[in-house]
Every structure is written in structure tokens, then in C-alpha cells.
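FIELD: query
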Amino acid sequence: MTIVVKQPDTIEETTGQPSRNKSSQPAGQPVDIEAMGKAARQASRKLAGLSSTRKNEALHAIADALEERSAEVLAQNELDIADGRANGLSDALLDRLQLTPERMRGLADDTRKVAALPDPVGAELESRLLPNGLRLSRRRIPIGVLGVIYEARPNTTIDIAVLSLKTGNAVILRGGKETLRSNLALVSVIVGALQAQGLPSEAIQYIGNPDRALVSQFLRMDNYVDMLIPRGGNSLHRLCREQSTIPVITGGIGICHYYVDITADQERGMDVIVNARTQRPSVCNALDTLLVNRQIAPEFLPKLAQRMAECGVEIRATPDAMPFLTDRGATVIPAGPDDWDTEWMTLILGVKLVDSLDEAVAHIQEHSQDHSDGILTQDWNNAQRFVDAVNSSAVFVNASTRFNDGGEFGLGAEVAISTQKLHARGPMGLEELTTYKWIVLGDMQVRE
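FIELD: result
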């Protein structure tokens, strides 16, 4: 199955396509990846021994610095935005790229929220006494050094950095070149705060050169980097899976679905659909495909078309749905063969009629990327059947898919939303950035 991203990031490492950038964006500075890895490893060992108090003090220092140096960061972000407009980036992508005074305050507030969360490092997962007298326990520890390659969202820089610091991990970041100035400015704020706290500035490092050759080198840094997290398009994920010698956790590609059951509360459910599609169209947990039970189509689809028209959403529909959607003010066109495998990232919604919950589940199982899928229903049995059958990282019943987010789940923030099944699934917060070690306490026992 081919995955299509309708309006992808234009960074080469995300899309695999040549960049159209011919503007004044900085070419970056020389980068010694090997030296960065060594420095990160040394910093991670220092971070691992920090108390929760020291880590929280550092996070508060970062939050204060984000507010104090906001104008500096915003000035650099304005240059990135200007370049993006000159290069024809979509409004949706520019929105992901842009920082504002309100968003800067939000980043500072989110950093303080992470500081207020319980520190998972050192927590005992289990403890038991074996028949031979050994006391066996598991204790959470930092993973070590993280590598994150991500798309044109500068807020991600702060999310990753603060979660890494809270869990005692060092991190090497590589963002999109559309936000190179913004990211360098944000990392400068973080590094300044760390230095003021007497902590190693190498704990948070940024690959400040957009040369793609550095990515290939980065992917083979298994001597120093313990886990790699790509956040971007399908081609970036494929590149990392195929070329990385570092363990990779992938996620962040949506193609999210909602099934509207016969018993759905249509009026209130419409608000859920509107929110899931329009609240922030360019993100990975936004709704892409709406599956509607055929029996309610004559009543439900005209109302859907009217609401989508009010929100400026274009509908891509199956032929049997078209008669119920036209003449309601919405732009409605026939769905193409690739539309069910498209992450729209803009104000477009696919609409398909299905005969049953089982048919809806079958469609989701074929086309979903296991990110965020849901059902609108008032039948508890149908809800349970759907939840049991759909194996996405988050499955929703009568709630917007937009809630699949670390902050909304009470995790403070997230490094990524994993759609894998090993180690972590869904929003990767603090606990997902830890591993564990076994601790064995004995009284001179020997094995027979």
C-alpha cells in the first residue's frame, strides 16, 4: 500500500523530494557528528546522576529563559517564516512553523508543567523475594542518548529537550531546514540555561547544518546514540528503518478515521467531526476519512455537507455518497483511488458509505497507519467491538482524535506518537524515555 501525504513538509529528509529553497536561509555551520556523539554520551552519564530537584531547577531555568529571550527567538522565526512564504509553503505548513508570543509563553508554561510531573527515574517497577533468598527488583533508568529527526515544528525542539532532561537523557536534535534559525535560537536558550545551572551544555545538541549527508552519518551513530526517533513523513521513516544501525521508534503518520454508527448522536457527534478535521488541520491526529453507515446517510450527510461548507472543508466522496452531499454549499468531488491512503494535512475530508461496523473496521484495518481511529455510537456493544478490533495507538469512542497528544493525556508533552508495538505506543512521555535494570540483593548465595 502506498501512503500519500497531501501537503508534506518540504524538507528533503522528510519527503525525499528536492527542496525548492533558493532564499537566504543559512547553510549552517560545520558539524563533527562523531564529536557530538561522544559529548552526548559523557553528558548523559552526568545527567543520569542528577536528583529530581536539580533537574526541575534546570527546567524552571529554561522556562524563565524562554520568556526572557522570547523576542530573540521570534526575530529568528520571522526570518524562517519569510523564507517559507518566498518558497511557496502552504498556509498549513507555515502555521506549524510559526512561533508567536502566545506560543512562546505556552512553551514556557509547558516546560514548568513537565517540571511538576513525577520523575520516573529511580521508580521501582516491582520487587519480589525468590525462594533462594534473593531480593529481585526492577528500577527505571534513563535510556542514555536519544537522537531525534523531526519536521518543521520548532515547538518540538522544546518538547523533546525538556522531556529528555527530566528523564536524565542527553539528546541530539536534527530539525527541518525551514526552521533552522528558530531551532538554533531555541537551543541557544536551552544551552544558556543549562550553563547557568552548572550542567553540561552538551546535554542538548543540535545538528546545525542541513546537509543531508549528515543524516546518513547520524543514522550510524550506534556507538553513542541509544534510540532514534524520526518525526516526519513516510520516506523519512523508511530511510531510518532501512539505514539506521540505531534502534528506531517510528510514528507520527496519521490517516485517521471515524466511523459513524447507526446509533450515533448526530448533532453532538458533528461537533466531534468538525473538531477532529478543522481544529488544526496539518497535524498527524487530524481526521482524514469519515466512514458513515449507509442507513443514516440520507439524514446525516446533508448536515455534514452544510457543516463542512461552513468550515471550508472540501469533501472527497464515494459515488453512492455524492447525492446526499451536493447542493449544500460544500465543495464535493469524487474520491480518487489514492484518497483512502492520503494523510490530507489540510481542509479535505474523505467520506465513504459502509454497510456495517465490520465493513468500517475492515476499511480501517486496510488503510489506517495505527495512529488515531474512532467510533461515534450510543451502542456500548458496538463501541466494545470497535475498540477490540481496531489496533491503533489510540482508539476513541465519542471523542475527537485530536486528543491523541502527550499534553492532553496528562504526560506534560511528548517526544513523538509511536505507532509501533515494541517498547512504546501512543504519545511518548516521560516513562517511555526510560528503560530499566534488574537489581539483585543477596546474602552470598551461589548458583548450584
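FIELD: remark
The CA atoms of residues 82 and 268 lie 40 Å apart.
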